[in-house]
Design goal:
With 406 residues, the chain is an alpha/beta fold. Helices cover 45% and strands 13% of the residues. Bound molecules: (2S)-2-hydroxybutanedioic acid (LMR).
Length: 406
């Protein structure tokens, strides 16, 4: 009987730590593993704009019928300008097929399924390192997943030459996953001036760019974080964008996302949409309604939209302050290491440089949960836990340095 011989799967490297964390009985444990923003009191905030939108939705007692397969047009129209900017040019808007998805993850999977079936793609390349789930999502769609170099040997800046060399040797039709902003897990984004070389290589090698836009608003601000997407749009290259709205609306469990396929013209976009709908229908049928309605209500109500932008901006600014405090606290331990990299990284994560051995010790000895790659979510630090975390990390850096020199 096959069910008795099924092997146990490995724990998910990120969400699996959530499970382990919730079973940890220690009172002073801290979860820095998953990419979630907590406020200074240690809580995932329910944004005021969302609370207000939710109150109005509850009052209107909307029925819970099936949604359109690709999500309501109102959702698509509301999200499009967030990602691509104000659509003064309607022909630009009409050549973008945007569909609602179940968070950013299913947008990536839908993109991979679509490209596998209709783009002739059988290979994908992700940055080395990348989000731990990219391989599984793309591989699950039947793509063979390779990597392109992303970090320099010192691991403190992107390795543009290495990246371009690897992309230059990719076969035409390879899907290239790029992080639109707030690179996960490193926090090191390509400098703005590097993108023209990346785009030139993509065009020359006829690669298919898939932009992962999971953290818009957490790096340099809502508009600045969209600059890579918008540069691609003005380049005229075909490309895809997987957007998460679960994070920048603090609606993680509602799973709100969108996939946009930027096509050469309106007719192509209509045909692409029809195929995306076919893929969605045979997978989850149609997206859930509540989270998408909240996002649509906020984005289409000027006062709520303004409030959302202000709330998101204050989240971003708190993360910047936390980065500064963590770097200063670590530096105060007199370790022979420059911690200013923490303040140069963008978004929720810091790629700390700690190895898997030290990350495990942080977990076991101190109840501080980060990912084995050394990634920590700085958005989970606050005025009560920062000193405790900095002290434990300082010990880990010292232990790592001692192990390296012995
Ligand atoms: C993360 O990287 O922690 C987030 O994107 C959450 C997830 O699904 O892994």
């Amino acid at each position: 009987m096959f069910l008795s011989t099924i092997p146990m799967a490995a724990r998910d490297p990120i969400l699996g730590l959530n499970e382990q964390f919730s079973q940890d009985p220690r009172n002073d444990k801290v979860n820095l593993a998953v990419g979630v923003y907590y406020d200074d009191s240690g809580k995932i905030p329910l944004l005021d704009c969302i609370a207000e939108a939710e109150a109005s939705l509850v009052a209107s007692r909307l029925a819970r019928g099936y949604q359109p397969i690709d999500g309501p047009t109102a959702f698509q129209d509301a999200v499009l300008p967030v990602v691509f900017g104000p659509m003064g040019n309607l022909s630009d808007a009409r050549r973008i097929a945007t569909v609602q998805t179940v968070g950013g993850t299913s947008a990536l999977r839908l993109a991979a399924d679509f490209l596998r079936q209709w783009g002739g793609a059988d290979h994908a390349m992700v940055s080395d390192p990348t989000w731990d789930n990219h391989r599984g999502v793309l591989g699950g769609a039947g793509l063979y997943v390779g990597t392109y170099r992303y970090l320099s040997a010192g691991a403190k800046t992107p390795d543009l030459d290495g990246m371009i060399a690897d992309l230059s040797s990719a076969a035409p039709g390879t899907v290239v996953v790029l992080h639109a902003c707030c690179h996960n897990p490193t926090g090191y984004d390509l400098p703005a001036e590097a993108w023209s070389a990346v785009m030139e290589t993509i065009a020359r090698r006829q690669l298919i760019p898939l932009l992962d836009n999971a953290y818009q608003g957490f790096g340099d601000g809502l508009e600045d974080d969209a600059s890579v997407v918008r540069t691609f749009l003005s380049s005229g290259l075909p490309f895809l964008v997987a957007t998460s709205l679960s994070k920048n609306f603090s609606l993680y469990g509602e799973r709100v996302g969108a996939l946009s396929v930027v096509c050469p013209d309106t007719e192509a976009a209509a045909r692409v949409r029809s195929q995306l709908k076919g893929l969605i229908r045979t997978n989850y049928s149609n997206p859930p309604s509540h989270g998408g309605r909240l996002v649509t209500t906020v984005l289409s109500t000027p006062a709520l939209r303004e409030h959302w932008q202000a709330e998101l901006e204050s989240i971003r600014l708190r993360i910047l302050r936390v980065r500064q405090h963590l770097a200063t606290a670590l530096q105060s331990y007199g370790i022979d290491k420059d911690f200013s990299f923490i303040t140069r990284q963008k978004g929720m994560f810091s790629y700390s440089g700690l190895d898997a051995v030290q990350m495990r010790r942080l977990r076991e000895d101190h109840g501080i949960y980060g990912v084995d790659t050394g990634r920590i979510c700085v958005a989970a630090l606050n005025s009560r836990n920062l000193e405790q975390i900095a002290k434990a990390m300082a010990c880990a850096f010292q232990a790592q340095a001692a192990a390296l020199s012995s």
